[in-house]
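Bug #77: duplicate submission created two jobs. Keeping one. Sequence:
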Amino acid sequence: MLSVAAQTPPNAVPPMALNFPRDRFMRLPEVIHSTGLSRSTIYDLISRRQFPAQLSLGGKNVAWLASEIDGWMSERIAARYQGAQS
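Kept job's structure:
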């Protein structure tokens, strides 16, 4: 029996990449509005690897995946509740 990697042509998208739910891009103003963080705080947290990094859309255009921002906020909420139970 061949593995999935052996069955996939070299330039094909890996099968697991096709299973991601539909996501959307968030530009910086929306990230600021959604998180309540300032621009400088967002970039500071990114540099400390404590916030999802932006992705390039080409040229000087960047965006964040909404699912990653939602996940980051969910982690912060969960951490608050875990701290309250201690």
